[in-house]
Design goal:
Elements (H helix, E strand, L loop, with lengths): L6 H75 L5 H14 L3 E7 L5 E6 L6 H13 L3 E2 L3 E2 L5 E11 L2 E11 H8 L2 H4 L2 E6 L5 E5 L10 E8 L2 E9 L10 H46 L4 E6 L4 E4 L1 H7 L3 H4 L14 H12 L6 E7 L5 E12 L5 E10 L1 H28 L1 H26 L9 H29 L7 E3 L1 H7 L1 H10 L3 E6 L6 E3 L1 H18 L9 E9 L2 E7 L7 H4 L17 H11 L3 E6 L5 E8 L6
Parallel strand pairs: 17-19
Antiparallel strand pairs: 1-2, 1-6, 3-5, 4-5, 5-6, 7-8, 7-10, 9-10, 11-12, 11-15, 13-14, 14-15, 16-18, 19-20, 20-22, 21-22
Helix pairs in contact: 11-12, 14-15, 15-17
Organism: Massilia agrisoli
Keywords: ATP-binding, Kinase, Membrane, Nucleotide-binding, Phosphoprotein, Transferase, Transmembrane, Transmembrane helix, Two-component regulatory system
Protein name: histidine kinase
Length: about 650
């Protein structure tokens, strides 16, 4: 049975029935209107971002060109300053510069009086800005660019002045003049100029140079990038000739096409665009990385080898290093002509590891130059990956470390001298205590021997029993041994010898300088407590250097407690094994170390003592690091400081 709706409900049914379809249509139309607008905005943003990225690239190209010319001038100026080049050779170099850099209108060499010694190019009028830049360059001793200015009705000119100094005095200058229009023509790529108008503005926003291959820009997409040069403030301004994206001319037709093909076409276009962009970015990134590596490695030898070990590339620095030409090296297979005969076995072993893919990333070896000279080198080896991601060989960076080796040897000798001086200074500080300490056994020996003589020459001429004399003579002998032990400790501590690494027991090291430590401690009434595990594993070290470290640390701890209460003057020396290392701690209850001293505590020549040289802790840290260990300090919770040095333990050695 049908249910009849009242008239009021029938009147409402019509509008409600169309509400949902109308709403959906409105939403659909809104989406259709929004999508083209959104697409237009995205395209506009993408064009702006692309313009910014391309502008940055152009800026880098201009800077690279200016820096390259400045570097050439600096090299030429250095040769002129030392008198190592003739004027004719200077003229040839200037001509070559202009031939390579077409944006240069003139390159000139001026003497100290400002007279032209050599010049290449068309003479141009000197502007006030150029004279001002020349004066500032002479005053500062650094190269300086002039503000852009028009010279003789021609285009804008910018000069670069590089002063030449000899023995601290002005010896002339090198001057190059840039045609800014030509600079843009040479550095701005054609593909960028076809889509954008490029201009250089001075500090007053005045156009001094422009390149408009495709006409003036439309002002829709613009970007400015400052070129802050020393003396010249230029602004690189780019203005795209492209107009803003337009909406579809027929929105209804476009909506139908969008409904039918929009999703597929947009996905295909997006995929193609992303793929092309990623490929272009990858190629550009690889090219820039290679150029940067080459430019930054001009003093580093580079050598590329294929998977069979054959040399495929060497740079000039490597050729100079081994004294061979590129033609003599490229294509060569092992054995190489720069291999030294005495390490030929090492070379062959490393070459076999390279072929097997097991490469040592960094190692030191020796090369032999063509004249027979040996040079120590540091080699960094890394896989060489091609553009397709395939492993194509190995790239090696080689550094000549002859000077570093020489400096390390000088540093080692200097450290040995400082250590010897430190030991002598330590002995000088405790000389008075040493005299007092030796006086006691010597006085005891004298007393015992005098008593024995008195007994031998006693009244009545009665014979003296040997048992009566034995205690006195034994005591005299013990005191003589004690004095001899003190003298031997001092002799062993101060004598000079080369460091000798051997297996050393830490408890024996502590016992070896115990007499000297206690001698220092008695001066300030300090009690010395030693806690060393007798089962500690040995360490491989130079015993004398460890004794010096212990004596320096204990002396610092004793002196840090001279102003505290007598009952707290306790110096503890603890030795234990932890994590495969042997740790030795010197713990005092002194005044501690202030925060402002912590950062410089181990710096050479820094000291808080009135009579100190500031080398004790620096020498201690150097000695411990020489053995592959560490020296650190921390506050003592009960007051004072805990100095701890740790050394690698010799595992498995009885």
């Amino acid at each position: 049975m049908d249910t009849l709706l009242p008239p009021s409900r029938l009147q409402l049914a019509g509008p409600l029935r169309w509400a949902l379809p109308v709403t959906l249509v409105l939403l659909f139309l809104a989406v259709l209107l929004w999508l083209p607008w959104q697409a237009r905005q995205m395209e506009s943003n993408e064009r702006q971002e692309q313009l910014i990225a391309d502008t940055l690239w152009v800026e880098q190209a201009i800077r690279f060109e200016l820096d390259r010319n400045a570097e050439s001038l600096e090299n030429l100026g250095a040769e002129i300053a030392v008198g190592g080049i003739e004027p004719a050779a200077v003229q040839a170099r200037l001509d070559q510069m202009r031939k390579v850099a077409r944006e240069l209108t003139r390159v000139a060499w001026l003497d100290e009086a400002g007279q032209v010694r050599a010049s290449s190019g068309t003479p141009v009028a000197t502007t006030p800005a150029s004279r001002e830049a020349a004066l500032l360059a002479h005053q500062t001793g650094n190269g300086r660019y002039s503000r852009p200015a028009s010279a003789g009705g021609a285009g804008a000119q910018m000069d670069y002045h590089l002063p030449i100094t000899r023995d601290g005095f002005h010896a002339g200058s090198l001057v190059v003049s840039y045609d800014l229009d030509a600079l843009l023509d040479e550095t701005v790529p054609w593909w960028f100029a076809q889509d954008n108008a490029v201009a250089l503005l001075d500090a007053d926003d005045k156009v001094v140079a422009r390149r408009e291959s495709a006409g003036p820009g439309r002002g829709v997409y613009t970007h400015n990038r400052p070129l802050d040069l020393n003396g010249a403030e230029l602004l690189l301004a780019t203005n795209s000739v492209k107009a803003a994206p337009r909406l579809l001319p027929n929105l209804l037709v476009g909506s139908v096409v969008l409904l039918a093909l929009g999703l597929l076409a947009s996905l295909a276009a997006l995929w193609r665009d992303v793929t092309r962009r990623l490929a272009a970015e990858g190629a550009l990134r690889q090219q820039m990385a290679f150029r940067t590596a080459m430019e930054n490695s001009m003093v580093t030898g580079l050598r590329a080898r294929d998977l069979e070990g054959r040399i495929t590339y060497v740079n000039p620095a490597f050729c100079r290093m081994v004294g061979l030409t590129e033609a003599e090296l490229v294509g060569r297979a092992p054995p190489m002509p720069y291999w030294a005969p005495e390490v030929i076995g090492e070379y062959q072993q490393r070459f076999a590891e390279v072929l097997s893919g097991n490469v040592t990333p960094q190692f030191e070896t020796v090369f032999q130059r063509a004249d027979g000279q040996r040079i120590p080198v540091l080699i960094f080896e890394a896989p060489l990956i091609g553009a397709d991601g395939q492993h194509t060989g190995w790239m090696g960076s080689i550094l000549d470390i002859s000077e570093r080796k020489h400096a390390e040897e000088l540093h080692r000798q200097q450290q040995e001298k400082l250590q010897a001086s430190s030991r002598l200074a330590t002995m000088g500080e405790i000389s008075s205590m040493l005299a007092h300490e030796l006086n006691q056994p010597l006085a005891a020996i004298s007393s015992y021997t005098s008593g024995a003589l008195n007994m031998l020459s006693g009244d009545g001429g009665k014979p003296v029993d040997a048992d009566t004399l034995r205690p006195a003579l034994e005591q005299a002998g013990l005191q003589a041994q004690r004095a001899g032990q003190i003298i031997r400790s001092v002799h062993q501590f101060v004598k000079k010898r080369d460091p000798v690494r051997q297996l050393v027991e830490i408890p024996a090291v502590i016992e070896g300088v115990r007499e000297l430590m206690e001698l220092q401690a008695r001066r300030f009434y300090v009690a010395v407590q030693i806690h060393a595990d007798p089962a500690l594993p040995p360490v491989r070290a130079d015993r004398m250097m460890l004794e010096q470290v212990l004596l320096n640390l204990t002396r610092n701890g004793v002196e840090a407690m001279q102003d505290i209460a007598p009952e707290r003057r306790i110096l503890r020396i603890e030795a234990r094994a932890a994590n495969g290392r042997v740790e030795v701690s010197v713990i005092d209850n002194g005044h501690g170390i202030p925060d402002d001293v912590n950062a410089r505590l181990y710096s050479p020549f820094f000291t808080t003592k009135a009579e100190g040289m500031g080398m004790g802790l620096s020498i201690c840290r150097t000695a411990i690091e020489f053995h592959g260990g560490t020296l650190n300090h921390r506050p003592n919770p009960g007051g004072g400081t805990v100095f701890t040095f740790s050394l690698p333990a010799e595992v498995g050695v009885a």
